[in-house]
Amino acid sequence: MADVSPTLLWIRRDLRLSDHAALSAAVARGGPVIPVFVRDHTVDALGAAPKWRLEQGLEAFIAALEEKGSRLILRAGPAREVIPELVRETGAGAVYWQRAYDPASVARDTDVKSDLRAAEIAAESFSGHLLFEPWSVETKQGAYYKVYSPYWRAVKDREVAAPVAAPAKIPVPRDWPESAALADWHLGAAMNRGATVLSGHVLPGEAAAQARLGTFMRDGVAEYGERRDRLDQQGTSRMSEYLSLGEISPARCWHAGLRAQAEGKAGAGKFLSELAWREFAYHLMWHTPHILEENWREEWRAFPWKEDRRLREVRLWEQARTGMAVVDAALREMYVTGYMHNRARMIVASYLTKHLMVHWRIGQAWFDDCLIDWDPAANAMGWQWVAGCGPDAAPYFRVFNPETQAEKFDPEGAYRRTWIAEGQAQPPQSALDYFAAVPRSWQLDPAAEYPAPVVSAQEGRAAALAAYEQREF
Ligand SMILES: Cc1cc2nc3c(=O)[nH]c(=O)nc-3n(C[C@H](O)[C@H](O)[C@H](O)COP(=O)(O)OP(=O)(O)OC[C@H]3O[C@@H](n4cnc5c(N)ncnc54)[C@H](O)[C@@H]3O)c2cc1C
């Protein structure tokens, strides 16, 4: 039998070996498999924390490949040049990858695919980042969904293929092409001194992802419905950073949820419906990519949001010194851990877009820079949902009152004490870590007096509602 030519396995945000359709297909094709990661414009465009987290993920993924006797070839440059170059160097007859759905990746992948096919190289993309391809969910009229509840009804009983195991063996080439060294890329450089603090909160890699899912299914999912909104408890799965980099497949999470449901664990249904929120975000980004940059409802362009990032209130919000304790606690949690509780995301987003009347894009950009679970679709949808200009959004007149939110979801103040050092005789390490992570140029001091609110809960609400009532749309 003639030797089968190598397959390039183009790795992107899918840093796992199990339940990886492109990898399984590459192994099944029969020839050597050459995994490659390209540092292109989509990687260079990442914010500081997501880029740092990517480096961590790549390190873990390289180790997992090496355990199987394989490697990850690293190259930098436009994928449209790098991939054909590697095809020539290795004599590859096929290039396989898992689909991405953001407009920049879609445009890139379309070009790469058509170039390869024109050169008679088998170029195939596979699903795996999502449960349901965005174009496969349609209303009865053949349109896309703009509202979550009917979307959920349309997908909740769909068959999702069970996750498949990692291949026992990954065939290797006789000669490996040259690779850059990950450390030379300095992907974490923009984190500066924050990286040391952040690294204490991150366990990258597929094995860690599966272990965390297992722990949540054993100990957390039953009470997920009651605990998921509590800021002072660890009541959610914390799967988001792993899903963001594809260190775990959504299908694995979905099947774990189905099993928990079959075992009668009460919160499992809610968990499945939250996974579907992620799908809905991708559905929206695919059908209306302007959600990433523009008000999803065009009429909101006329709304008098402030757009100048240099404004004092923006600086205070970014530096977590608004004087509104629950808002500052949440922003500090994100700065120290790269993660923020979902309820807290809604509270800080509402405070910025309503109390401070600042454009959601400014908050979105801050999250782009700070979140290790950064996801283009979920972040854009989350911001537009809170701001009131998105699909199926919370109405603008629904203004989260940060004080009552704190009373309800952090009744003893434990969350606020965890993250705010000022005013505590012996602040916990978590609260002090914020001061170790922020740039020195901010000149923050944990012993300083905690600031008065930049805008009080009542004044902010009144101003926001007045602007809303005066709008001309
Ligand atoms: C302003 C704002 C910005 C956000 N930015 C991001 C982001 O950049 N990346 C991100 O992954 N999520 C984002 N979210 C959604 C949500 O806050 C996180 O997915 C969730 O907090 C992650 O924690 P978890 O994994 O413990 O979630 P769990 O409660 O355990 O939920 C399980 C999974 O369901 C998905 N999910 C849950 N809630 C949502 C939601 N509202 N929208 C989309 N998917 C959801 C996530 O993949 C999550 O990992 C944002 C929400 C808001 C309001």
Name the average pLDDT: 97
Count structural domains: 3
Secondary structural class: mainly alpha
> What order do the strands of the largest sheet run in, or round the barrel if closed?
3-2-1-4-5
Q: Could you walk me through the main structural features you see in this protein, from its secondary elements to its overall organization?
A:
It is globular, with a radius of gyration of 23 Å. Strands 3-2-1-4-5 form a five-stranded parallel β-sheet, sandwiched between helices. α12 packs antiparallel against α13 and α16 (342-355) packs across α18 (376-387). It has helices spanning 21-29, 41-44, 48-67, 79-90, 103-118, 148-155, 182-185, 194-199, 206-220, 224-227, 240-244, 250-262, 268-287, 312-318, 325-337, 342-355, 360-370, 376-387, 402-409, 414-419, 429-437, 457-470, and strands at 7-11, 33-39, 73-76, 94-98, 122-126. The relative contact order is 0.12. It starts with 6 loop residues before the first strand and ends with a helix. It has three domains: 1-128, HUPs (Rossmann fold, 3-Layer(aba) Sandwich); 130-160 and 203-287, Serine Threonine Protein Phosphatase 5, Tetratricopeptide repeat, CATH 1.25.40; 298-470, DNA Cyclobutane Dipyrimidine Photolyase, subunit A, domain 3, CATH 1.10.579. It contains 22 helices and five strands. Helix content is 49%, strand content 5%. The chain has 473 residues and is mainly alpha-helical. Bound molecules: flavin-adenine dinucleotide. Residues 228, 236-240, 243-244, 274-275, 277-278, 281, 342, 345-346, 349, 367, 371, 373-375, 378-379, 382-383, 386 line the site of flavin-adenine dinucleotide.
